[in-house]
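[audit] Reproducing an earlier prediction to check determinism. Same input, same settings, fresh worker. If the tokens differ from the archived copy the diff job will pick it up downstream; this log only records the rerun itself.
[audit] input (380 residues):
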Amino acid sequence: MSKRDYYEILGVAKGASEPEIKKAYRRIAMKNHPDRNPDNKKAEDIFKEATEAYEVLSNKEKKAAYDQYGHAGVDPNGGFGGGGPGGDYGNFSDIFGDVFGDIFSGGGRGGGRGRAGPTRGSDLRYNLDLDLEDAVRGKTVKIKVPTLCACEGCGGSGAKKGAKPATCATCGGHGQVRMSQGFISVQQTCPKCHGRGQVISDPCATCYGQGRVKETKTLSVKVPPGVDTGDRIRLAGEGEAGPDGGPSGDIYVQMNVREHALFQRDGRNLYCEVPISIVDAALGGELEVPTLNGRVKLKVPAETQTGRLFRLKGKGVTSVRGGGPGDLMCRVVLETPVNLGNDQKELFRQLQGSLEGGKHSPRKASWFEGVKKFFDGFTM
């Protein structure tokens, strides 16, 4: 009886990639697995056929021989390829490792490959609040960070001074144990030593065998000029100490610039609002405005309208990433007089009478003209 084409069995094209072949096999194998289909001869035959096809197509040498010579290229009796399909299902745990791994090992693939080495310590994040002035000019700040440090009593080993960790009897020092269910064999981390390959029979009295103790570090952080909210400074090796003497992680200091009473920052530029009197707005004048480096004079031309934006070149911020300084954008806001006396009110009424007509208020006149046209449209 002639065999079916292996690509046809898995339902993939001849040029299919390894992940596509693996995905196709997993789908067929999960559907027709004997454990899911007891006493189902048809499902068992489909499963065996798919496994045979996958064993060949997942092996580069066998796949090349099959692509060139067909079934004869992988037939152990045919003389072309060594070791035909059907005998060794070594790739089976690889294909099902991520499917059944949770059952045996609590997650992850079963491919434990020997004792795990020292693990790097965790990275930490510290949020540093800064005033705008300090963020612009730069500053050196002292911070206190609670973290896990290597135990000085045992040097991070976890064992009492003079004692040594013993080889784990459960895994024989490999850090991994093999568990089997039927013909599925999966490796998992040793539950006794947790992958270390060693156990501590005489733990350190300071850290109780953990190799690390809680401490609060005091660190000096040099904040460069021009930082902004979201910028980070990395302090290498200042994070948590690694377990079992592993290397320490890092600390990332995250910048957060507080809101300022006068300025709003947008990249390199600063924005501020400058109140202006009705007299200065109408006749023009010279206003004193603040900057981060002192006060400067701003000339306001006559007939300035509220909301107008004035740019002061080079009075902004120099970015930490380099380049020239930005600008200070001053938005003038007309301030209406309050707490007027009777004489002052009368003067305003006289002024209002002299300003009647659209000559002195072109914006107001055009607005009313637009309103009139809008309502005239309803009456047509």
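[audit] rerun output stored. Observation attached for the diff report: Confidence is low (pLDDT under 50) at residues 78-95, 97-115.
[audit] end
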